Amino acid sequence: MLKLETEMPKFLKNVKIAMDDGRVFRDTIQGGFWMYSSAFMVTNENVRDLFNTLDLQDKKVLSVIGAGDYIFNSVLNGATEIDGFDISMFAIMYYYLKEAALHVLSYEEFMAFFFDKQDKRHYNETLYTKIAPYLNARALPFWDLVMSSPYRLSFIRRTRNSPLILIDNDYKRLFRVSPIYDEKNYQILQEKMQHASIRVFLDDVINIDYLKGPYDYILLSNIVNYIDQKVFSKVLKKCQGKLTENGEIKVYLLQMLKKYMQGYDEIIGFRNAAGMMLDDKNGGPIELRHADNCAMTKRRSSYDS
After folding, report:
1. Is residue 88 part of a domain?
2. 104-108, 138-142, 243-247, 254-258: which range is least confident on average?
3. Is the pLDDT of residue 32 over 60?
4. What is the pTM of this model?
5. Which of 73, 75, 182, 200 reaches 20 to 30 Å from 175, CA-CA?
6. How many CB atoms lie within 10 A of CB 181?
7. What is the sign of the dihedral through the CA atoms of 161, 163, 165 and 168?
8. Count of domains for the chain
């Protein structure tokens, strides 16, 4: 079990060294994530269509943090209790920054600060001074260090991964894959965040036995693509034991390979996020033979049977 509080001093020391000498942390995404893996700028999944299949009203959720989209869309859709976990410290730091920004920034300011590289407000000090009072105490020392550096933009570019945003202004279409980036939904989310209970944990999915639940939904994103399948089968079994009677685990599959698709209770096909960004006409579940991605479900009922 990792703890943010105990890991932060070493993390901050290494971040300062990296900022001073321009070192890039080695990102081992193909062999699994680790504490210094880059954070995702936005989801690379079709979150909109996935969440349209979920009933999250007044539900308790366990979720990967990733880019934060799973957690924020859970709140938008009515979840009231959420436990988030991630092995990447950068993912957690960026999540806390978004969470704080939601409290105080307008929709236009939020989008400019995080996504518009052509805007002078992009990660600028003025907007950060508005955000900082709302930052979690765990994240404040990190962001004070980063934002006070003249090299902050280059450091931020090195610690964020954004495969979905390919050309200038693509961020304006993000709402097509993640509803929180729609202006009206952003404002609804701001209000709902005032009442949601969210806990954040630094840890790998294989080490979260201490998170007992029970949960109505466990959202594991696309972890299945980056973990040994025998290990992941054990993770799924443990997670099933954390579910409520009617609870479900959702696993998102980016690579539609048969070796990943065995033993699930249900599989629903979707278009991929890049396609949704370019053309919003054909959303919703589609036949697996036409799908780019899919969501796979494990239910509590199959654990008990």
Report:
1. yes
2. 254-258
3. no
4. 0.92
5. 200
6. 26
7. positive
8. 1
